[in-house]
Automatic annotation (TrEMBL):
Organism: Myxococcus llanfairpwllgwyngyllgogerychwyrndrobwllllantysiliogogogochensis
GO cellular component assignments: cytoplasm
Keyword Transmembrane helix: no
Family annotation (InterPro entries): PCMT (IPR000682), SAM-dependent_MTases_sf (IPR029063)
Its EC number(s): 2.1.1.77
GO biological process entries: methylation; protein repair
Protein name: Protein-L-isoaspartate O-methyltransferase
Group of enzyme by EC: transferase
A Pfam family the protein falls into: PCMT
Cellular localization per UniProt: Cytoplasm
Role description: Catalyzes the methyl esterification of L-isoaspartyl residues in peptides and proteins that result from spontaneous decomposition of normal L-aspartyl and L-asparaginyl residues. It plays a role in the repair and/or degradation of damaged proteins.
Length: 214
């Protein structure tokens, strides 16, 4: 059973893509959180999912998904599987989702949960998402749900020319900007960057080793 009333709410908040609204109303958000959080799963708020991580607010999930303008044929890379809720939304809207999670316990429980719910077009990897998934690149779209300080160039390189990436970027603990990046079709042309919303995501961990200051 889906979350009744959520589509109406999200459409009143400005979400227009009917396929996104339908996908979200087919899912039950309570299936993606622990027992303790279940009563609050209907509200438009982020919720803890353990290991200091959170499942995003449904409005933000809807906005990020809508920004990718998926038609159904795409192969999508997602960084930050978390609970798997955003992964499930994507899986209803594209051909295949490749999702990467750095925390082993979260990767394992999301995989188990999504398989149990019957999703068959999702591929899972546990590891550092700043490296993307080179063996499966390029992707038609990339969605990142943890915030790095800057756009990882490796990820941009794994995006098809003409493809979209949606990513929160900014300092840890501060306000980040949710960016939509369009990789130009012409080789050498700079990507177009558009700011969608101020957001607060958990920081992206991993990345290249930082130099140790003396
Ligand atoms: N989309 C998730 C919410 C994710 S919270 C949902 O719907 O539930 C962000 C997630 O990104 C967390 O699970 C965190 O562990 C993960 N993460 C942080 N840095 C990462 C990295 N470098 N690679 C992969 N996953 C990362």
């Amino acid at each position: 059973m889906g979350d009744r009333g959520r589509a109406e709410y999200l459409s009143s908040q400005g979400i227009r893509d009917g396929r996104v609204l339908e996908a979200i109303s087919r899912l039950t958000r309570a299936d993606f959180v622990s027992e303790a959080e279940r009563l609050e799963a209907g509200a438009d708020v982020p919720l803890p999912i353990g290991h200091g991580q959170t499942i995003s607010q449904p409005y933000v999930v809807a906005l990020m998904t809508e920004a990718l303008a998926l038609k159904g044929h795409e192969r999508v890379l997602e960084i930050g599987t978390g609970s798997g809720y955003q992964t499930a939304v994507l899986s209803l809207l594209c051909r295949e989702v490749y999702t990467v999670e750095i925390v082993p316990e979260l990767a394992r429980s999301a995989r188990w949960r999504l398989l149990r719910l019957g999703f068959e077009n999702i591929y899972f990897r546990q590891g550092d998402g700043t490296e993307g998934w080179p063996e499966q690149a390029p992707f038609d779209a990339i969605l990142v749900t943890a915030a790095p300080a800057e756009v990882p160039s490796t990820l941009l390189g794994q995006l098809h020319r003409g493809g979209w990436m949606v990513i929160p970027v900014g300092p840890t603990g501060g306000t980040q900007e949710l960016l939509r990046i369009h990789r130009a079709r012409e080789p050498g042309a700079l990507p177009q960057v558009e700011s969608l919303l101020p957001v607060r995501f958990v920081p992206m961990t991993g990345g290249p080793p930082r130099p140790v200051l003396p």
